[in-house]
Design a protein that fits this description.
Blueprint (H helix, E strand, L loop, with lengths): L2 H7 L10 H14 L2 E2 L1 H4 L8 H10 L6 H15 L3 E8 L1 H4 L7 E8 L2 E5 L11 E2 L3 E5 L2 E7 L5 E4 L8 E4 L6 H13 L4 H4 L2 E6 L2 E6 L2 E6 L2 E6 L3 H12 L10 H18 L1
Antiparallel strand pairs: 1-10, 2-3, 2-9, 3-4, 4-5, 6-7, 7-8, 8-9, 10-11, 11-12, 12-13
Amino acid sequence: MDLDAYLARIGYDGHTRVDLSTLKEIHRQHLLSVSYENIDIQLGISGSTTTESAYNKIVLEGRGGWCYEMNGLLGWALAEIGFPVTRVCGGVARSLKGDSVLGNHLVLLIDLAGSTWVVDTGFGDGIFEPIPLIEHTFNQRGFDFKLGKSEDGYWRLENHRFGGAPSFDFSTEPASEELLSSQCNYLQNDEQSPFVLALICQRFVDYGYETQLGRVAKKIKPTGIESRLINSADELVGRLHDTFDLTVPEVAELWPGIVERHNTLFTNRERAS
């Protein structure tokens, strides 16, 4: 694997010093250049939690990734530069679902100049820059977040009000790679996994976030959400290319299933109302 190739992939041509400025800029560039996406899972292509797999997909193939790939690759690159990186297990929506979700998210911690920083390019519509590991509320690009402690001592990062997931919990203990791998396998294969149920693509843009959830296209801004429906396989393939920089024509094969799931979801909602 080649660090220079990764830096070129994210459009970073600055210094590679072990300092906060470099950390923040690489984090920002990664998010502006690489989309969060689960297309391979939708196509039935299995992935892994290895850095080599993430490098091949994101750097060599020009694709995006999900948390294990996005943060896995970033963590490797930062370690190559010289940053002390700790991989930790996160649990998305642990506040609602309990400990069973621990390991369904990979988070990075960086110790730098006497402080610990939370690094996360794998939450899809989360933080834009690393944040200090202290209890605080903060605003990034007009979106409000909160980092605090849960009642049982885990750290909890609460997403902004328009976020796709409400929060994730994490500890500062080094990750169990076995747990990460197990959760990765479950999320790719269980028929009730949200990553199996729906196409998900997310991208950081200058006004906030662009997202694609099944047929639903959204622009997310600090002031609100603009939504519309995609109406054809060609339109979906074109949107993924133009908005998310993802050239995957095979997505057209998913269109009948995407429409069916969308219709089923909204029919069930109407019956429940």
